[in-house]
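INTERNAL AUDIT FORM
Audit reference: QA-55
Scope: verify that the stored structure record matches its stored sequence.
Auditor: D.O.
Record contents follow.
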Amino acid sequence: MRGPIFFIIFLLLSAAGPVCAQGPPAGNPSSYNQLILNGEVIAGEISRATGFAISPILGISVLGAYSYYTTPIEQRGGLPWHASPKFWGPLLAVLLGIILKDSSKIALPKILIMPLDAVETLLEKNTSAVLGLLVILSSVTGRGIEQMRLAGHDPQVAFIASAHAAEGVAGTAAALPSGGFELVILAIIVTIVFGLVWVVSQSFNFLIFLCPFSWLDLLLTMGKNAIIALLLGAYFIHPFLGLFGSSIIILICLFLFAGSYRFVIFGTIFSLDILLKSAGKDAVKSGPVKAFAGAAVGGVPSLSYGFLTRQDSRLVFHYRPWIFMPLKTVPTPFSCDQCDVGIGALSPVIVTTGKKMNSDLTLFRLRPLYKSHEQRIVELLGLRGIRDVTFGRTIRDGYRWLREQIGLFAKT
């Protein structure tokens, strides 16, 4: 992971370098104010990209509404497209609907609202992410660079002004020789930051979606929203404090990216199978058994997606690293006649007896389309039998489930 970390640090220094290297110009306070403003705009855009990536629909709808209602009535006609009520109004309505759905999770069984959660995670999260990135890039390439060129402007309003239309901007903008370079670097940074944080955030969304415990689902959702609130609060205290908080999140996401990427693939396939229950059932009768590797399978990153075969009475896993790389074949040390198909809450799993007696060691997770076809899996792979491995409903069971999920993508 050192390469990506150094690359991100290089981009941050490239963007902030022109601001820091010049220092306070002697006898020219307006130019110094401009340098400070440049730094705050960069900090604001990176902070906003981080927050938008965590929850795009929340960021673009709330910021759009805030920008609209804090702009004088006579100036609202010049607001950018993403600050128009026609854009953020429907998004805010969808956000309120999601909040109501999430609030009902305690009262309603998880199984009843799981299809809605699947639609939200697959459709809303992906669509709002595209919109969020467009809003950020629109700000950077539009008012963001103009704000960086304004000398003597109040730096405390840089973040809000990036969504506003101010009068006479064209007449007061001064050409900076490095403005084009700063614009390109800043656009690259916010795009990379957004994509990096969004992948980790989306893996967290799938963790919430797949959670079989309504109370734990709600706690995970509240934890995610708390992160957004802390990041927003840090920014409004000072843009550089927001940048500090964003930098911590970015570094964490760098270390979690590989595992989170696999978890996003895992969650996407699971969600599609849950929504399209009848589709793909024919694949159960013929073709290889498709599965995700567990943390106990040595030499294979957790949640790698591939298929299983039997060779010399042992399980063999075939997969493509990062989905698109050349196919790899990994013989496992697990004997087929010592493994069972476990009946799970959402999908079957292949388990064996752990080091501790009466404990199950999850080797592979099968796709939901194999649910109710456990006997067919036993016949295809020559496994020992079938047993129930579903979790209970106690707090201890919830903790054990969460620890197992985190353990799956903690290993890279």
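Auditor finding: record pair retrieved intact. Residues 2-275 form one domain.
Action required: none
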